[in-house]
Amino acid sequence: MRIEYSKWIPGKSQTAEDRLKKLLDLFHEILLRTSGDAQEALDWMRYLGEEYNIFGPDMTFDMFLDELKNQGLIETDENSLLKPTNKAIGNIKRSALLEIFRSLKKSPSGSHDTPHSGSGVERTSGTKNYSFGDQSSNIDFTRTLQNAMRRSLREGSLDEESIEKNLNLSEEDIEVYETEHTSSCATALLIDISHSMILYGEDRITPAKKVAIALAELIKTKFPKDKLYVITFGDEAELISENELPFLEVGPFHTNTRDGLRLARRMLRRSGNVNKQIFMVTDGKPSAMFDENGKLYKNSFGLDPKIINKTLDEAIALRREKIPISTFMIAQDNYLINFVEEMTKANHGRAYYSGLNDLGQFVLVDYVRNRRKKY
Question: Per-residue pLDDT tens for 216-226?
Fold first, then answer.
């Protein structure tokens, strides 16, 4: 019997487990893009299997479907239609967080500190002289003993041979670790769901959803004392739950930025947190608002002075309440850029011109950075 061996190439060889993991990752990605429609996601998996043989020589689509059921990732609803389970949604959340953190140049430490030294409970690597009120548990014993030895030798009260027996400790020798004020933060994350988020064949809503999912997962797992309000805005603004994020869809809506900011201000006002901030992900200039009678006033061309001025008024109101707006633009429309610059100036906030691939990095980096400030 003759056996032929091919050259092993690092990264090319896959075990059955590796291939299955990649298939599951692909299924979760498609599930997110189809807004949780399990049947549509499976139809895409079947198509990719037929066209590109993604299942390989040892697996068929039906075998993959059985694996999804065995792992508890899909189930049938009351109408006998397939739907993702809570386990699948949890996998999507974790995958979104890991994907975005892998794109970071430096991983956040996971601590929620401010740059102000004080009597908090989180130690830093720096030390300072002891002062009344500092906790004894924060004493840096190594530095304290070194200070006592240096002082005693300098004063001539002992020599190097008797230092262990006659060392005297003075209050001025004591050094303690500096601590940082730990803080909580309330964040409103605004997501544009207007029709432009899927126009011209470019999917902008999926990256926006990934960011929102990752940010929600980050807060829940790392910063449980923080509050996150997820708000969508199209013709009107709506507060949604974290569990609705994977199922978010774009509609035939205009861009009512003002209503999104107004709802965010109301929610943040109720939060009671000292630190408040707004993150807004958008690709379009404001094109709608509610008038004084509660009717939707819209101008599809955008940059209507009436709409723009009312939106800027809301940005100023947020500034007065010390709530900064960080706007993440996922389009390079000059008119949009001009409006965002005006809003940023009115609010004293921040503006980021980011591509779709960098959106998650900008949002999470800025979230962690902002959490180190007191507004």
Answer: 888 888 888 88
